[in-house]
Amino acid sequence: MSVPCVAVDRERGETVRTRLADAGALDGDHEIEVVDERIFIPVTTPDAVPADLRDSVVERDPDERERPRTPAEILGYDPSLERLGDLVIIDEENDERAREIADAVMASDVPCDTVLNRASPIEGELRVRRWEVLAGNGTETVHREYGHEFRLDVAEVYFSPRLATERRRIVEQVEPGESVVDMFAGVGPYAIPMAARGASVVACDLNERAIEYLRENAERNGVVDRITAITGDVRELDATYTDTADRIVMNLPHSADEFLDTAVRVAGDDCVVHYYDIQHESDPFGPGTRAIREAAGEAYEVAVETERVVRSYAPHEYNVRLDVRLTRQ
């Protein structure tokens, strides 16, 4: 099929292509051709080409461009998908529709080995859920986030890729030489990048499998010498860690208040606490602030440095973060 193309010297190709793109004149359905020292850039119509380039328009028969096929193109609607490493996660109650989406994902150009459907809410103190494997054969993957790699099994540990930006905001505050306690560390999405910035991190979690992955991920990311991984309840940390922390991460929104006495115990003379909470929209920060002040008592001056809504959690409820500085009095 004959297609109008702008023909220019090869060395001018990228400059002209950019001008055509800015003018909305590029034909994205056909391939750009290079013949000897000339380049032929398909355009939608000659009239769309900037005036000073119209004398360069010629007719060619370029190949059609192969466009990536998306699940939405296959299905005729846009399904809700979440990527985690080479897993694609959906949340669909209708079995027939779930399998239809899974088939479309596997037939598309989405890089994916496995499609999973959430089969339960997050359950138990280890915060894991059940999954239905719709395509592929496993629930383990390697997730990449801001230059770090995390191996994990979603059926055995809790991990949310949606919080990547939130984690990054905290990690960027860390200075080399800090002593950090990550009270609910999981597979290390806070602990490992903090260690990579030069902090010494004590990483605790009740989930033995999560700590196994954390240790593997510490080696994978070259920070094993700066992470102490501990399986168990952080409230049982021995006296070695009392009065040592420059920074504490408390990412257990439903029950972090139950661990504030431990946070105060391990806090050093000047310590920043990143406290996550879930509260009603009418007073999202008040309950956490009051709980921290009560736990600190007369031992610390409490200064709330940041109040941030991380995301909507449920109707009229927010997942929030308080950044609080404890200064020993």
Structure description:
- With 329 residues, this protein is α/β, with parallel strands linked by helices.
- The chain is elongated.
- It has helices at residues 13-22, 71-75, 95-107, 164-171, 191-196, 208-220, 260-266, 286-296; strands at residues 3-9, 33-35, 38-42, 57-60, 82-84, 87-90, 114-118, 131-135, 140-145, 148-153, 179-182, 200-205, 227-231, 245-250, 267-280, 300-314, 317-328.
- Strand 12 (200-205), helix 6 and strand 13 form a beta-alpha-beta unit.
- The strands form 4 sheets. A 7-stranded mixed beta sheet has the order 13-12-11-14-15-17-16. It has a 4-stranded antiparallel beta sheet with strand order 2-3-1-4, covered by helices on one side.
Lay out the secondary structure:
Blueprint: E1 3-9, H1 13-22, E2 33-35, E3 38-42, E4 57-60, H2 71-75, E5 82-84, E6 87-90, H3 95-107, E7 114-118, E8 131-135, E9 140-145, E10 148-153, H4 164-171, E11 179-182, H5 191-196, E12 200-205, H6 208-220, E13 227-231, E14 245-250, H7 260-266, E15 267-280, H8 286-296, E16 300-314, E17 317-328
Parallel strand pairs: 6-7, 11-12, 11-14, 12-13, 14-15
Antiparallel strand pairs: 1-3, 1-4, 2-3, 5-6, 7-8, 9-10, 15-17, 16-17
